[in-house]
Amino acid sequence: MDELDLTQLPRHIAIIMDGNGRWAARHGLSRAEGHESGAKSVRAAIEACRELEGVDVLSLYAFSTENWRRSQAEIGALFSLLSKYIHRELENIHREGIRVRIMGRREGLPDQVLKDLEYCEARTRDNRQMTLNVAINYGGRAEITDAARRIAREAAAGALRPGEVDEAAVAQRLYVPEIPDVDLLIRTSGEQRLSNFMLWQVSYAEIVTLGVLWPDFRKRHLREAIARYQKRQRRFGGR
Ligand code: FPP
Description:
- By secondary structure, the chain is α/β, with parallel strands linked by helices.
- The chain has seven helices and six strands; from the N terminus they run βααβαβαβααββα.
- α4 (111-123) links the parallel β3 and β4.
- The model has no long low-confidence stretch (mean pLDDT 96).
């Protein structure tokens, strides 16, 4: 395993946690059981970031605006898993000084899930060690569309002039405006798509795809992704 350069850590790591369904099929289990095993890998990702001290934000794609197309049974299993996870893990996360943020459209979420998620945010609001940004009912296009709608509304109300609409104005109206751009985007299971994830924030991210299915993800996989990231030269459009 490569030694990591602790002075060049990605500040913001985002993960598309892919492969729960395939993992379940390979093990003769239901898709819900695949997601349940996937939830355990979330702990590995958090631990690996905490150990590195210097990763400020970990973003996880838990439920996309497109995931509503899955069966009612699978959607129900994912939401009940989320609530279960919160009840089991929230106090650990809080003790570790992690701030939880929820990124996505809040309307459309089941009431109890929304309540649990908002409780997580409120409980951990003052924590400063790291931010865990969980994308739920999230789509990158929806996020940019919602920001555009807010801008239009403010302009119509006379609070904003068209000339004042610049990149910073859009960025300030994203779901979680305080987080920095993504430095490293990881996708598991070998797929090489963005799948509508953080389209605005990944503009200059390095993308690393890992062959491992999400339920098999361990701390060493995150370190491997960072090692690959550190071998890249980031140019941000310059030379
Ligand atoms: C993709 O695998 C995974 C998801 C759609 C859900 C991710 C959710 C979790 C890991 C569970 C809990 C999350 C938290 C933050 C506690 P897939 O079902 O698309 O897999 P496939 O492509 O192999 O079918």
